[in-house]
Automatic annotation (TrEMBL):
This is Reverse transcriptase Ty1/copia-type domain-containing protein. Pfam families: RVT_2 (PF07727). It comes from the Eukaryota. Residues 3-47 form the Reverse transcriptase Ty1/copia-type domain.
């Protein structure tokens, strides 16, 4: 899933390789930086249980 809000992009998937591929494609076209794992978005704290593997990436 790819979520775009103004100048923020959030990518989430259970497939880490898929996230890496999308990030590489976006970096080739747009100037952006990887802000790492998502912890806050739009003033909300994001947490995930340890048992469920979720890969999140925040780009700006």
């Amino acid at each position: 899933m790819l979520l775009v809000y103004v100048d923020e992009i959030v990518i989430t998937s259970s497939d880490q390789e898929g996230i890496t591929t999308i990030k590489e494609l976006l970096h080739k076209t747009f100037h952006m930086k990887d802000l790492g794992h998502l912890t806050y978005f739009l003033g909300l704290e994001v947490q995930f249980p340890e048992k469920k593997k979720r890969h999140l990436c925040r780009l700006a």
